[in-house]
Design brief:
Structural class: alpha+beta
CATH class of the largest domain: Mainly Beta
Shape: elongated
Largest sheet: 6 strands, antiparallel
Number of strands: 18
Order of helices and strands: HHEEHEEEEEEEEEEEEHEEEE
CATH topology of the largest domain: Immunoglobulin-like
Number of helices: 4
CATH architecture of the largest domain: Sandwich
Distance between the termini: 133 Å
Helix content: 10-25%
Strand content: 25-35%
C-alpha cells in the first residue's frame, strides 16, 4: 500500500475544507446582501407608490377647491399600503413647503418605514441598527395660489384667507410739461405761485457796474397784457405772485426786465427759445457757468434747490426754476444766470 499517496489526498481534502470554511461566510454575506438589497428596493418602491397615491388624492381634492387634511391623507395612505408594508408601521409626515415660482407652493408628504432585515449583519453594513433599515419616500403636492398654513396639533391644515394683490399703481402724469422753446404747459387745472428767489443784475456805466432795477411777470397763451409781480415794482427777492385755477392745457410765459437809466434796457421771456432764459425742472442740470469775477457761483446762489455734488436741480414734483441773464450774451464767459431767478410752483 502506498502510504505517501494516501496522505497527499488527505492534505488536499483538508485544504479544500479550509478554503470552503473561509469562503462560505463571505459568500453567505454577499448572498444575504443581495437578498436584503432586493427587499429594500421592493419596500421603497411600494412606499413610493403609496406616497404617489396620496399626492394624486390631494391633487384631485384641490381641483374641487378643497384643501386636504392630514387625517384624510393618512387614511388614504393606509388604504393604499400593500405587502410587504405593514400599514401600522408607516410614519407619515406632512409639511408645507413655501416656495414661490409663478405663484406655486407645495405640500410635502414624506413616508418612512422601519423594515426588519433577515440578516442582521447587513443592517450594520448598510448603516442601520438593531437589525432594521429605514426606508423613505417623498411626494410633492403642488398648489397654485394661496398656501395653507402648517398643520396644527389636530392634523388639520387650516385655510388662510386669500390675500388679494393690490392693483398696480397707476402712473401719475406730470402736473406740467416744459416744451423745447421754454413754454410751461399746465396738464390740469392748477394753482400757480411765482417767487423771486433773488436778483443780481448790473449794467456797465462808465467805468463802474451799476445795479439795475429788475421786474418780473407772466402771461397766458401768448397774448394779453403781462401781469407783473410785486404790483409792477422792482424785485429784490422773496416777492410772490399767486394765480388760482390756472386753466388746464394752457401755457404760460415768464418775463424778466432789467432797467437802468443810461443803459440799454433788456427784456427776455421764456417760451421763445431764447438762450438768455433757462427753464429747469427736477433732476436737470444747471447751466455750467463760472462765478462772475469774485461773486458767488450759480450752485451756491441756488444752494437750496441744487445738489452741489452733481450740479442738478433738486425740486418738488410741481416746481421749476426760471433763470435769466440780462447783461451779457448767454455764451459769454461773464454770463452767470443770476440776474433774476424765479421759482415756479404748481399745486392743486
Amino acid at each position: 500500500m502506498n502510504s505517501s499517496g494516501y496522505s497527499g489526498r488527505r492534505r488536499r481534502r483538508g485544504q479544500s475544507l479550509v478554503e470552503i470554511a473561509l469562503a462560505l461566510p463571505i459568500f453567505l454575506i454577499c448572498l444575504g446582501g443581495i437578498i436584503e438589497a432586493a427587499r429594500i428596493t421592493a419596500t421603497r418602491a411600494a412606499l413610493q407608490r403609496v406616497a404617489n397615491t396620496a399626492a394624486n388624492f390631494g391633487t384631485s381634492t384641490l381641483v374641487d377647491q378643497q384643501i386636504p387634511t392630514v387625517s384624510d391623507i393618512s387614511t388614504k395612505i393606509r388604504e393604499a399600503a400593500m405587502p410587504p408594508l405593514a400599514k401600522s408601521d408607516i410614519v407619515i409626515d406632512v409639511v408645507n413647503t413655501d416656495y414661490n415660482v409663478n405663484d406655486l407652493r407645495s405640500l410635502r408628504i414624506r413616508l418612512t418605514y422601519e423594515m426588519e432585515l433577515i440578516v442582521p449583519i447587513i443592517s450594520t453594513l448598510l448603516g442601520g441598527s438593531g437589525g432594521t433599515r429605514e426606508v423613505a419616500a417623498v411626494a410633492i403636492l403642488p398648489y397654485q395660489g394661496n398656501l395653507p398654513s402648517s398643520s396644527d396639533d389636530a392634523g388639520q391644515i387650516p385655510d388662510e384667507e386669500e390675500e388679494e394683490e393690490d392693483p398696480p399703481a397707476e402712473e401719475t402724469p406730470p402736473q406740467f410739461t416744459i416744451q423745447d422753446n421754454g413754454r410751461i404747459v399746465a396738464n390740469e387745472e392748477l394753482d400757480l405761485t411765482m417767487t423771486a428767489l433773488g436778483e443780481d443784475a448790473t449794467c456797465r456805466k462808465g467805468n463802474k457796474d451799476k445795479d439795475t432795477s429788475v421786474y418780473g411777470g407772466y402771461r397766458v397763451n401768448g397774448y394779453g397784457d403781462w401781469i407783473e409781480m410785486n404790483g409792477g415794482s422792482t424785485l429784490s427777492g422773496g416777492e410772490e405772485l399767486e394765480v388760482t385755477a390756472f386753466p388746464a392745457d394752457s401755457y404760460v410765459e415768464f418775463q424778466g426786465k432789467s432797467v437802468l437809466q443810461g443803459c440799454a434796457n433788456t427784456i427776455y421771456q421764456s417760451g421763445e427759445s431764447d438762450p438768455q432764459v433757462v427753464v429747469i425742472r427736477d433732476g436737470e442740470s444747471l447751466p455750467d457757468v463760472p462765478a462772475f469775477t469774485a461773486g458767488t457761483g450759480l450752485q451756491d446762489y441756488l444752494s437750496a434747490y441744487v445738489d452741489t455734488s452733481t450740479g442738478k436741480a433738486v425740486l418738488g414734483e410741481g416746481q421749476a426754476l426760471v433763470l435769466y441773464e440780462f447783461e451779457v450774451d448767454a455764451g459769454d464767459a461773464a454770463a452767470d444766470f443770476q440776474d433774476l431767478a424765479l421759482l415756479i410752483e404748481w399745486s392743486k
